[in-house]
């Protein structure tokens, strides 16, 4: 004796386990493709190591980086960006100088194209630091041999100015090395906040 196979519109019906497995595989593939697209082109997360951005971002915090449109948009002064510092390391720093800017620090004040610019995000750092001068005086030309930030590059500094490896040591950051803008700290949970 043998079982007859079921017919549906003249075709054999596939066994349940095969249909179920195919449905699971399709769902996994859709999730994997969606995750790849989101991570590659929209958002990604990073763990911050070090103290160069304290107190804005602390060592060990996890942050969300927005990649949407950053390839096509012009970066803005004071954006917090992630960029490829070398083949193995990504850094998070704040954009201080944009292409064409002539900038310098004098008496703990940032001057861009001859005009003083407020850095309100440094108030907490200055208070915690307690020293009279938080950012040492410098002129762009003394650090880079150029008077202005070149096209296609930005000049970046860490918020913890006295404990940061940034454009003062590594030079300008090419825009094509920028991964995206840091938007949100999400771990640890008690520190969830938008970052600016």
Automatic annotation (TrEMBL):
Reaction(s) the record says it catalyses: Cleavage of hydrophobic, N-terminal signal or leader sequences from secreted and periplasmic proteins
Pfam family, one: Peptidase_S26
Transmembrane region(s): 20-38
Active site: 52, 93
Alphabetical UniProt keywords: Hydrolase, Membrane, Protease, Transmembrane, Transmembrane helix
Biological-process GO terms, alphabetical: signal peptide processing
Organism domain of life: Bacteria
Coiled-coil boundaries: none
Recorded GO MF terms: serine-type endopeptidase activity; signal peptidase activity
Enzyme Commission no: 3.4.21.89
Start and end residues of each Peptidase S26 domain: 23-187
Main location: membrane
Subcellular location: Cell membrane; Membrane
Gene3D superfamilies: Umud Fragment, subunit A (2.10.109.10)
NCBIfam families (UniProt xref): sigpep_I_bact
Name of the protein this chain belongs to: Signal peptidase I
Protein species of origin: Alkalicoccus luteus
């Amino acid at each position: 004796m043998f079982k007859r196979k079921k017919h549906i519109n003249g075709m054999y019906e596939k066994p349940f386990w095969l249909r179920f497995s195919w449905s699971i595989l399709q769902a996994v593939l859709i999730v994997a493709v969606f995750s790849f697209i989101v991570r590659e082109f929209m958002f990604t997360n990073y763990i911050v190591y070090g103290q160069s951005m304290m107190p804005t971002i602390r060592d060990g915090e996890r942050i969300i980086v927005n990649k949407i449109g950053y390839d096509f948009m012009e970066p803005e002064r004071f954006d917090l960006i992630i960029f490829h510092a070398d083949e193995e390391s990504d850094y998070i720093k704040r954009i201080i100088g944009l292409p064409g800017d002539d900038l310098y620090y004098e008496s703990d004040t940032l001057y861009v194209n001859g005009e003083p610019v407020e850095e309100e995000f440094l108030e907490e750092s200055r208070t915690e630091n307690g020293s009279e001068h938080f950012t040492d005086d410098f002129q762009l030309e003394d650090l880079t041999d150029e008077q202005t930030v070149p096209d296609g590059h930005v000049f970046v500094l860490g918020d913890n100015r006295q404990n940061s490896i940034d454009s003062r040591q590594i030079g300008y950051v090419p825009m094509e090395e920028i991964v995206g803008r840091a938007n949100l700290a999400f771990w640890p949970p008690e520190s969830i906040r938008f970052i600016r």
